[in-house]
Amino acid sequence: MLFQGLAFWCLLVSDHRYFVTALETCQTAWFDDGDFSSQGDSERLGDLKRNHQTRICSNPVDMEAQTLSGIKSQDTKNTFNVNSASEGFVCLNSEQKQRECYDYKVKFTCTGQFCSECRTRWFDHDDPQGNGDYELLSDLLLSYPKVICIQPIAIEVQTVSGKPASNTSDVFLTYDATYGFACVNAQQGHKDCDDYKVRFTCPTEFCQGFVSISNIRLVPQECRTRWLSSDNSSAVGDIESITHLLKAFPGQVCREPVSIEAKTTKGVPAKHTGDKFLSYNVEFGLVCINEDQVGGQCEDYQVMLTCPSDFCQGCRTRWFDLDNPTLQGDFETLLHIQMLYPTEICSQPVGIEAMTVSGVPALKAGDVFQIYDAAQGFTCVNAQQPGGKRCQDYKVRFTCPQSFCPV
Question: Does the reported pTM lie above 0.70?
């Protein structure tokens, strides 16, 4: 695969310094439109673009072909009349020496605006503990139904450290915009899968109502609540449902969150506890029932919700930028802001937004955050960033209870 992962490397000159930058790529879904017949199989790019229009880019940089059963084209011993990203794929029975053509499917690697125009944030829903790493579209749609389209047109996959999946040695069970991504440990030989994250490109109409960032991509406006715990682990279990949270924290919880995160009250992420959840999604919230657990009762959980932008617009502060990442990192803590600007911010905010000073939402910036919640503020530590890079420079603003704002 000539152009998988990071397709081209180019050299840019600025202020007499040289920077190497990578052109991002994404992969389409698989297509099987050709008339598989006594003549062979044809999956020409021109035909596919007429049938699928915006689901294929105008100028793919690479193409992959497999049989419907998953055998790579180079392993079938078929001879191909056409096999290129610029033209597509054609296999003619009349040109075969050993056996007739298989029935093939193809997918393309694209770049540029096709990948970035309406792109989701990165998702890391699973890790390779147990059977492997499963970042399946069906699972992500359950947990984040409002920030992923039902039928993505492309997918990107990287390790959590930022290495393109195609540059690893792992074997993938599925890597497809239609189904998502899965890596099974048992298929890797004597090693486990890496830990992966995925993001999707959606049809442009999915991004209506989102905001454009630097004319590069469309991203949803969102804000985060503080960590919330409406229930303690009891004889039944732990129930942090949206309904329970709305009753326990009036004015502090949105009715239709776009994503949910959960961790124990001691700080262990929910996916690392080993508990089985009756529910863990934004439609209902988190529910853990003791009798469903193998070795005892559920942990005591807390959840944080990401809400639509309108939840945070009622009583909102100005943007604050107290720090920059020159030393240990960027620290925009609530306590520090309250000490410097006591009359401009409430004591108990109900929401927080963070973005880089250039206007990129924090969840799209690619950094790892130590703290990002309405109760504590925001911190990004340089030493915690993958690849030795430094945090970007961030600013924050908070949403306060309506009583804090003048009538």
Answer: no
